[in-house]
Design a protein that fits this description.
The complex is a heterodimer of chains A (898) and B (90).
Chain A lengths: L13 E10 L2 E7 L3 H7 L6 E2 L6 E2 L12 E6 L3 E5 L10 E4 L17 E12 L3 H12 L4 E4 L14 E2 L2 E2 H13 L4 E4 L2 E7 L3 E6 L6 E12 L3 E3 L12 E3 H11 L6 E6 L2 H12 L3 E7 L7 H6 L4 E3 L2 E7 L3 E7 L5 E5 L2 E5 L2 E3 L2 H5 L4 E4 L4 E4 L7 E3 L26 E3 L4 E2 H9 L5 H8 L12 H12 L20 H5 L5 H4 L8 H6 L3 E5 L2 E6 L7 H14 L2 E4 L4 E6 L3 H8 L12 E7 L5 E11 L2 E6 L4 H14 L7 E4 L4 E7 L3 H8 L15 E6 L2 E6 L8 E7 L3 H12 L5 E2 L2 H11 L47 E8 L11 E2 L15 E7 L8 E7 L8 E4 L6 E6 L9 H4 L1
Parallel strand pairs in A: 1-7, 8-9, 8-15, 9-12, 15-28, 17-24, 18-19, 18-24, 19-20, 33-43
Antiparallel strand pairs in A: 1-2, 3-4, 5-6, 5-7, 10-11, 13-14, 14-15, 16-25, 21-22, 22-23, 26-27, 29-30, 31-32, 33-39, 34-37, 34-38, 35-36, 36-37, 39-42, 40-41, 41-42, 44-47, 44-49, 45-46, 46-47, 48-49
Chain B lengths: L2 E4 L3 E4 L4 E5 L13 H9 L7 E7 L7 E7 L5 E6 L7
Classes of the chains: A alpha+beta (898), B mainly beta (90).
């Protein structure tokens, strides 16, 4: 392979620092400052990858992020599944391979390691570090703004060339001075190799900085966002326009000026505007042999300048195709009156016009308009107040263009439009022939614009072909929308550091947790809480442990950590009035010292949460919520207080974590309290069911509450959180001689299931009314209002055939109905679906030696079906059950009265 | 990601807030007096305008106060926020 590196020049490379790298398994050498594309071009490597569908050889087309042809997988130093070679910086140990189409992760993970997320607040962020962007950021910094400048390239100055002048200075000097000024400004930060992935509402910009050793994602909130993203040159479609050696004209100029690389030895330029001629002149001065400039315009600006330096210019001509194997060796052209010509050339430079890089602008609702002279879509000035767009992205300095999108031909099937999708002009016209009119539809029919470049070079071209085919005029439709991320970003980078599950979602533990852990508890997650599920002894599984724990409660006494139940203090002169509106039953009639179970409904009449209310004083209630419902109940109370009844004098305060609660359940519960030592009269007459008493228990101030979720005689011992563990240990010590068992949530669930007590969220799902649960007794019928009341009279809510909570008793006592299993009528048991569904199983418990298998379920018109059978179709055979009342244990409720 | 000017705490990221839907949908004085259709109108039906409307937010990870905002459903721009019981200024 021949070296195409010029002997001198290249403002972007450091010729004193050669860097070896590996591409497709072969050794190469580049210079510090090179991109992989520039280094490969310098080495004469024409083919970078093959095309994704047709397998055609593809080379470097552009010099930037708009690249549609040359894709690589970077293996070292940090894995990237698929990126344009034009955006990969040559660094030590770079290892890359050509990768067409779709990237792939290595089976053992991408090894991309840790990334960081950082947050930044600035007055002004400028996206794009070309001349326009640098001007903007300097102006803002001089006015005292905190500023951030980001650019996706590894240099500042964008596409400014050696010959350009800025403010009367050579561009490179001006850029160096600008960078030095920013570096010396304390509130200015400049990030290169940093891509703005997207702009979001209110000046929120997410930036991916490909820094080493650790990539960073910056979350920037800016008062002002300036888009200075430049413009991308666009191609023209003609036969075999995808051949290596066909390149955007401006890219060849960048390779020569910045990297000191001549991308070929003899070139044809295909131009629609004067920049093609200027590129030809500039490259000729660097030693490129110019075969001809083919200009579609009959008399184009720039033509005479080119002719003046001895370049052949053919006005009114167009390139029709190329030959080569695989690189371009001949370029064919056609002119007025059927004239044709053929040129020997290994480089075909296309100057099809310019597309402002408006993707980020458009993504946050910046408006666009079609500009006829420049034949492109420009920002129209509409958009968020905090968003601005400047420089070439706003159209500044873009040339007038003779619109020319593709060279007419009989066969358009090798006129490639989107190289990354192997899609051609023929594909676009085929979509049009199928009556697709919108570019969004054409996109989905052809896949144009769906590759990782999101149509940066193909989008406007496709829109123009569609507009032309429908005769709707240029600019009638624009390119399809590009969405964040602007360029691909690995998920591993977005994920950031793995700080473990506790930061993502805090794990909450009760004060008694250390005892549970020390005693081998198996935990389950209930909301954020870790609750003991069961306490297995050696050799026990869930079933055996739960059976032992349940029997311990029914026959002797058990202790459960109930600290996770939500607790909210509702305080104030209007507390009782307020709670009457929130619960279906009355709380204002509750005497101080007593407890009442209550249901809360949402406005649509559906069960929202349940718990008990203790009246601590005339103006003070302590209400409990379900473990998982504490936060939403507090939200609910606060919402109604603040938005509807701000005149009610009520405060609500979450006190869940101020208390630890030991629930002591079982026929020996009172005996346990006696041996603990309680200075409260525990006699049933003095301290009846559903009352509470303050006192001292085991030497600790405690609030005892006679509530029972097991159906047994029960006391809840509530103490300050900090002594919760001490109280639990005292209970277990005092209960030892009584045979106390520690029991978990599984036994708790079974015990309550035997009583037919519902668990909100398990036996309800937001579509269940109190009447559906058979709990009409808790819905008051006086004239006073409560949340959800009116909805209970809605025709749908009052239907008789709604799903209702029932018990389900398997006919085979060994059988177990799976929770969630659907229920059908027996005559449909063996029918293939669909069959009429009657309902489903909400809770189910297996057979114990002393207690049968049973379940709860939600069944259409279920209460009328009591005594009949339903079937749960299930792999392994249908399971038959009898519909029954939900309660199977102590229906009179004598035991809990104790 | 909106920057929401809480009338009590100042501008904060959207992540600190919870959305509360259309503002000024008052709970009826006497729900029992409403027909099923009227109750359904209150319960289920909300405006869905193209342009500005008043909506409710709560600063749930901040001061926990409910407030109203006039926001454009097109641009997402919040023109003004005001406390419960107040009217928007202009």
């Amino acid at each position: 392979m021949t070296s195409r590196r010029l002997d001198a020049g290249g403002i972007g490379i450091d010729r004193t620092r050669p860097i070896p790298f590996t591409f497709d398994g072969r050794p190469y050498e580049g210079f510090a400052g090179d991109t992989l594309a520039s280094a490969l071009l310098a080495s004469g490597a024409d083919v970078v990858c093959s095309s994704p569908i047709l397998g055609r050889p593809r080379g470097v087309v552009s010099a930037g992020v708009e690249e549609p042809g040359a894709f690589v997988e970077v293996r070292q130093p940090r894995f990237e599944p698929i990126v344009p070679a034009t955006t990969v910086k040559v660094v030590d140990h770079l290892v890359a391979v050509g990768r067409p189409g779709v990237g792939a992760l290595p089976p053992d993970g991408d090894g991309s390691g840790v990334s960081d997320h950082r947050h930044l607040h600035v007055e002004t962020i400028v996206i794009g570090g070309g001349i326009a962007g640098l001007r903007e950021v300097l102006r803002a910094a001089r006015e005292g703004d905190r500023v951030l400048l980001v650019d996706e390239r590894h240099w500042l100055g964008g596409t400014a060339t050696e010959q350009d002048a800025v403010d009367g200075e050579p561009a490179s000097t001006w850029i160096e001075d600008a960078a030095a000024e920013l570096a010396a400004t304390s509130e200015a930060r400049v990030l290169t190799e940093a891509t703005a992935l997207g702009i979001y509402d209110d000046g929120y910009v997410v930036v991916y900085e490909r820094s080493t050793p650790r990539p960073r994602v910056w979350h920037v909130r800016a008062a002002r966002v300036v888009v200075a993203s430049g413009a991308h040159e666009r191609p023209i479609a003609f036969a075999d326009d995808d051949r290596p050696g066909v390149m955007l004209a401006s890219a060849a100029r960048t390779y020569a000026d910045r990297f000191g690389v001549l991308a070929g030895s003899r070139a044809v330029v295909f131009a629609t505007n004067h920049t093609g001629h200027d590129t030809a002149i500039a490259l000729a001065a660097r030693g490129l042999d110019l075969a001809a400039v083919i200009d579609v315009a009959p008399a184009a600006p720039g033509s005479e300048r080119a002719r003046a330096v001895g370049i052949e210019v053919r006005n009114g001509w167009a390139v029709t195709g190329t030959d080569g194997d695989p690189r371009v060796s001949r370029v064919h052209a056609a002119g007025p009156g059927g004239a044709t010509a053929s040129f020997e050339a290994d480089l075909l430079l296309v100057a099809g016009g310019w597309n402002p890089a408006v993707q980020l602008w458009r993504g946050i609702n910046g408006g666009l308009r079609y500009d006829e002279p420049r034949a492109c879509f420009l920002p129209d000035g509409t958009g968020p107040r905090w968003l601005e767009i400047v420089g070439a992205a706003a159209g500044d300095g873009l040339p007038e263009v003779t619109p020319f999108w593709f060279t007419p031909a009989q066969d358009l099937s090798r006129h490639f439009v989107d190289l990354q999708r192997d899609a051609t002009v023929a594909d676009v016209l085929s979509a049009v022939a199928r009556d697709l009119r919108s570019t969004e539809h054409v996109k989905r029919a052809t896949y144009i614009g769906t590759a990782i470049d999101q149509g940066r070079t193909s989008g406007v071209l496709t829109a123009a072909i569609v507009n032309q085919a429908w005769g709707t005029g240029p600019g009638a439709q624009g390119p399809t929308n590009a969405r964040p991320p602007y360029t691909p970003v690995p998920f591993s980078v977005l994920a950031g550091r793995d700080r473990g599950p506790r930061l993502l979602d805090p794990a909450r533990e009760t004060p008694i947790h250390p005892w549970h852990t020390a005693h081998g508890a198996v935990f389950e997650n209930v909301g954020q809480w870790k609750r003991p599920w069961y306490f297995p002894r050696p050799g026990e599984g869930l079933h055996d442990a739960t059976e032992r724990e349940s029997r311990g409660v029914r026959e002797r006494v058990g202790a459960m950590d109930a600290s996770t139940l939500g607790k909210i203090e509702v305080v104030g002169p209007d507390a009782a009035t307020f709670l009457d509106r929130m619960y279906t039953n009355r709380m204002s009639t509750l005497p101080v010292g007593s407890i009442r179970y209550g249901l809360m409904l949402s406005l649509d009449g559906m069960v929202f949460d349940d718990g008990v209310a203790m009246r601590l004083a005339e103006d003070r209630f302590l209400i409990s919520t379900t473990t998982g419902g504490a936060a939403k109940v507090l939200d609910h109370l606060e919402e109604w207080l603040q938005t509807e009844w701000p005149t009610l004098r009520v405060y609500t305060t979450s006190v869940t974590e101020q208390w630890a609660t030991v629930a002591v359940n079982g026929p020996l519960a009172r005996d346990l309290l006696v041996s603990l030592g309680a200075d409260v009269d525990l006699a049933a007459e003095a301290f009846p069911f559903m009352t509470w008493r303050d006192g001292e228990v085991a030497g600790m101030p405690a609030r005892l509450a006679r509530v029972s979720f097991s159906g047994e005689l029960a006391y809840e011992i509530n103490v300050e959180g900090r002594v919760g563990l001490a109280m639990w240990e005292a209970v277990m010590a005092a209960g030892g001689p009584l045979g106390v068992v520690a029991y978990g949530t599984e036994a708790m669930h079974r015990l309550r299931g035997e009583k037919g007590y519902v668990i909100v969220g398990q036996d309800t799902d937001g579509t269940v009314t109190p009447h559906d649960l058979g709990m009409s007794w808790i819905v008051r019928r006086d004239h006073t209002d409560f949340i959800g009341r009116r909805s209970l009279r809605r025709p749908d809510t009052a239907r008789a055939d709604r799903k209702q909570l029932v018990g389900l008793r398997p006919i085979d006592p060994e059988a177990w109905l799976p929770e969630g299993a659907q229920l059908v009528a027996p005559e449909h048991a063996d029918d293939p679906p669909p069959v009429p569904m009657l309902g489903f199983v909400t809770s189910s418990y297996p057979r114990y030696a002393t207690s049968p298998s049973f379940a709860l379920g939600s069944v259409r018109g279920g209460r009328d079906l009591i005594g009949t059978r339903v079937v749960a179709p299930w792999p392994g055979g249908p399971i038959e059950a009898e519909v029954a009342p939900p309660i199977i244990y102590d229906p009179e409720g004598a035991r809990r009265e104790g | 990601v909106l920057l929401i000017p809480c009338p009590w705490c100042g501008p904060r990221d959207e992540i600190e807030f919870r959305y509360g839907g259309q503002a000024h949908v008052a709970y009826p004085d006497d729900p029992e007096a409403l027909s099923d259709a009227e109750w359904a109108q209150y319960l289920f039906m909300r405006e869905n305008p193209e342009g500005e409307w008043s909506e409710r937010w709560v600063h749930s990870a901040g001061c926990r106060r409910w407030f109203n905002a006039v926001r454009s459903t097109i641009t997402h721009e919040i023109r003004v926020v005001y406390r419960i019981g107040e009217e928007p200024t202009a």
